[in-house]
Write a structure and sequence with these properties.
- This protein is an alpha/beta fold.
- The protein has one domain: Rossmann fold (3-Layer(aba) Sandwich).
- The chain has seven helices and seven strands; from the N terminus they run E-E-E-H-E-H-H-E-H-E-H-H-E-H.
- It has a five-stranded parallel sheet with strand order 4-5-3-6-7, with helices on both faces. It has a two-stranded antiparallel ribbon with strand order 1-2.
- Strand 1 and strand 2 form a beta hairpin.
- Helix 1 packs across helix 7 and helix 2 packs across helix 3.
- The longest helix has 32 residues.
- It comes from Brevibacterium sediminis.
- This is ATP-binding protein.
- Pfam families: AAA_33 (PF13671).
Length: 233
């Protein structure tokens, strides 16, 4: 991957990251990977759910795998069940729903809500995306610890201290890798990795979706031209 040069604002957050990462022009089968898939990542409380809500309002064509709807249904069905017991059920259903949406590639661009701090989850998403012919990208929402904790309090869904500590520790390691321009890890061939912040994440995701679609369209046109030329000889 290319080197990452970050410009910081007065608040200390990363405002822009060099996005000159090496991409792929086609999927594993050689067909044009024109359907973008973007993961919105970040620690609990970073603002992923709110970003998806705004994104759906600004771009209705985008499909989203958001566990918030599943969470509301589980609360209605089992309001008496502690969230600590609901969480593994929620995560399982959310991953199955994301898989179902991924299988329907013809449905258009797909955005997935996932913390991105669990390696197994990132590898599962990016591996399936490659198999299914998506252009996989991931955007992390950069935030400080106190802001994330306030975000959890505002949404009235606070992650247990030790669980959040694990998220935060893994996020710190990931953040440093991104700033160095390193890959997120072995077996994670993301087409783009972007470090954003709460106020810019929706624009960044829409920009990635538009760029990926434009690149895919150019590649498709090139292949079509080659076929046309072959037919005239």
């Amino acid at each position: 991957m290319g080197s990452a040069a970050a410009a910081r604002g007065d608040d200390g957050f990363v405002k822009e990251l060099d996005r000159n990462f090496k991409g792929r022009e086609s999927g594993p089968s050689g067909s044009a990977a024109v359907t973008p898939l973007v993961v919105i990542g970040g620690v609990p409380g970073a603002g992923k759910t709110e970003a998806l809500r705004v994104l759906r309002g600004r771009s209705p064509r985008v499909r989203s795998a958001d566990p918030e709807g599943v969470r509301r249904q589980l609360r209605q069905w089992m309001p008496w069940l502690p969230y600590a017991l609901v969480r593994p059920i929620l995560h399982t259903i959310a991953h199955l729903r994301a898989l179902a949406l991924m299988l329907n590639k013809g449905g258009g661009p797909l955005v997935i809500h996932d913390p991105g701090t669990r390696r197994w989850s990132r590898r599962l998403i990016v591996s399936l995306a490659g198999i299914l012919g998506y252009r996989p990208m991931i955007v992390f929402i950069d935030t400080d610890r106190n802001s994330a904790l306030r975000g959890q309090a505002q949404r009235k869904r606070v992650v247990r201290g030790r669980a959040f500590d694990r998220h935060w520790r893994r996020w710190g390691e990931l953040r440093e890798r991104i700033l160095r321009g390193d890959s997120l890890g072995d077996g994670e061939p993301w087409d783009r990795v972007v470090l954003s912040h709460r106020d810019a994440v929706v624009d960044d995701v829409l920009g990635l979706l538009d760029t990926a679609a434009a690149v895919g369209s150019r590649y498709s046109c090139q292949k079509l031209t080659e076929v046309t030329l072959d037919m005239t000889t």
